[in-house]
Amino acid sequence: MAEKKTLMQEFTKGIIKENPVLCLVLGTCPTLAVTTSASNAIGMGVAATAVLICSNAVISMLRKVIPDKVRIPAYITIIAGFVTIVQMFVKAFAPAINNSLGIFLPLIVVNCIILGRAEMYASKNPVLPSILDGLGMGVGFTAALLCMGIIRELFGAGSIFGIQLLPVQILIFILPPGGFFVFGILIAIANKLNTKAGKKVVTSPCQGCPMSSTCKSFECANKENNSNSKEVADNVN
Amino acid sequence: MRKMNFKDVFIPTISLFIICVIITAALAVTNAVTSTKIAENEAQAQQESMKIVCPDAKDFEEVYTGDNGTAFAGKDDSGEITGYAVSTVASGYGGQIKVMTGIANDGSIINIDVYYNDDETPGLGKNTSNESFTAQFKGLLSNDNIIVSKDYAGEGQQIDAVTSSTISSRAVTDAVNTACDIYNTEISGGELDG
Amino acid sequence: MLIKSLVSVFLAAILTENYVLCKFLGICPFLGVSKKLNTAVGMSVAVTFVMVLATAVTFPIYQYLLVPNDLSYLQTIVFILIIAGLVQLVEIVLKKYIPSLYQSLGVYLPLITTNCAILGVTMLVLQKVETTALYTYTYGHALINALGAGIGFLVAMVMFAGVRSRLESADIPKSLQGLPITLISASLVALSFLGFSGFVDKLIPLA
């Protein structure tokens, strides 16, 4: 990541090349849960983007002040603060979105995309690129959610943004199994395009996970080396 | 390694503490700014719902509030009571379902409005707020239990459930029955008949 | 009535409100750690443990500290910090006093702070206090609910680990290999859980 990039590239990389949902497979929970309709998907995407831009900006500003030892709790506190602020504004000015997103609005706190960008990007880069990175990742997240939302709403309810288009409704698309299925197909398409372009394909959500540096357990580590668990345990602290 | 430097412990602790204090202060400020607006939104949603179930009324006055719900008397311009709007809650499939029931002076149901059912499954339980379901309650009587029934829907006090959403439909019916109870025991029993 | 409602809460948390397959909480570990049965079980046990512990702490703090002081807007931030702290504490205690357990579960603990199922459970049980109309939803119900949610997570993980071990030997089209086929199998497992809808209400009628 050391090569010089223009600010424009910082912004656009999150949308296609490093799309957080379809290429890095981060933030799967909201991707599956709130995409029962296109408008929900936009609501979630915009809320997460707002949090992402603010937290990236603040964390980048404070990157030299926050002691390394407590950086994760510090990031979580900052992110939780912004999530609550966004939640209060949504409640005040768009109560319908608050009702339909429900628990997933406060759960933006534990969305791996946000902590991931804080840990991997904002903690190492100046403010302006961090903001653009946040914006790009947010737009990429929103685009992926919207894609899911449109497919699921079109087939599941026969409409897009509430406008009736199809006479038939395949209800299963807006039920949980439909979420898994549509997401699987979308990732398959993304993988196909990535392999065509000669890029590596993500095989497990662990690979992009922000905690992968502290967590040496799962498949990501299993593949590299089967270090004994005692050593792993010591590394964790 | 065992003995930790004072600086190693103190600086991280203090900086984490400062971050917490600043964030909490920011939240308190935002809360102060938005809380009145949030309360207003909730009141407005209720007001709109009351207008739907008591279309003749211009003004609503709270006449009963208890653990099981809240009742409002709907009054027209001259102050005459045109009907009652009763807000009740029942637990549906995913969570809470809030229903506003309009009851006319003669004890028949004017209309109902399911004004919160966002925890229900989209395409299934959420359809309980659709006109095609709620319209079934129009004209039913408040002095007899309403039941969800497949075979005798439309006969007497029986209504048909939303397709494959018996639980959500039953929850709405429960809420309406509770509203009728409130009307019978607290309003018509105490005021009009007594 | 109390026993009935407790059993109903417990069964509902495992079957009809399964956090992974019906509510989409904790998908990351579900997809990432379900490849082998032993890791799947280890992760689920650690999650269940922290879930119950976190609910045990956050429930009274919210009900008796935040709500009476009009501070309920601090819920998210307080809960996530409590969970993060608890996870650290559990790690230190296990390491010091039960090293054998630490070796088997310790590796999963750092991941749990950011597992949305934990934060989700602590928040959803508080919503249930308001939304449960048929009986009073008490502290006991909340704990049973958290335990059920953890066991539901375990059930989903173990089932899915079984499904995935079958997939290993299957001939899968190239584009679907890896995550896509995992998600499509998850879809089928979720489909089977849809069959439970209404099951608990029929089994233990509370009304």
Secondary structure blueprint with pairings:
The complex is a heterotrimer of chains A (237), B (194) and C (207).
Chain A: H1 7-13, H2 28-33, H3 38-61, H4 71-93, H5 95-101, H6 112-122, H7 127-157, E1 159-160, E2 163-164, H8 176-196, H9 219-224, H10 229-236
Antiparallel strand pairs in A: 1-2
Chain B: H1 6-53, E1 59-66, E2 69-75, E3 81-91, E4 96-104, E5 109-116, H2 131-134, E6 147-148, E7 158-159, H3 166-192
Parallel strand pairs in B: 6-7
Antiparallel strand pairs in B: 1-2, 2-3, 3-4, 4-5
Chain C: H1 2-14, H2 27-32, H3 37-66, H4 75-97, H5 99-105, H6 109-112, H7 116-131, H8 139-168, H9 179-194, H10 199-203
What does it look like?
The complex is a heterotrimer of chains A (237), B (194) and C (207). With 237 residues, chain A is mostly helical. Mean pLDDT of chain A is 80; it is low at 216-237. Chain A is built from ten helices and two strands. Chain A has two domains: 7-196, no CATH class; 205-236, no CATH class. Chain A has helices spanning 7-13, 28-33, 38-61, 71-93, 95-101, 112-122, 127-157, 176-196, 219-224, 229-236, and strands at 159-160, 163-164. By secondary structure, chain B is α+β, with helices and mostly antiparallel strands. Chain B has one domain. Chain B contains three helices and seven strands; from the N terminus they run αβββββαββα. Chain B has helices at 6-53, 131-134, 166-192; strands at residues 59-66, 69-75, 81-91, 96-104, 109-116, 147-148, 158-159. In chain B, strands 1-2-3-4-5 form a five-stranded antiparallel sheet, with helices on both faces. In chain B, strands 6-7 form a two-stranded parallel sheet. Chain B is elongated, with a radius of gyration of 24 Å. Chain C has 207 residues and is mainly α. Chain C has one domain. Chain C has helices at residues 2-14, 27-32, 37-66, 75-97, 99-105, 109-112, 116-131, 139-168, 179-194, 199-203. The longest helix of chain C is centred in the N-terminal third of the chain and has 30 residues, at 37-66. Chain C is globular. The chains are: A mainly alpha (237), B alpha+beta (194), C mainly alpha (207). Chains in contact: A-B, A-C, B-C. At the A-C interface, α2, α4, α8 and α10 of A face α2, α4, α5, α6 and α7 of C.
Question: What can be said about this structure in brief?
Answer:
The complex is a heterotrimer of chains A (237), B (194) and C (207). With 237 residues, chain A is an all-alpha fold.
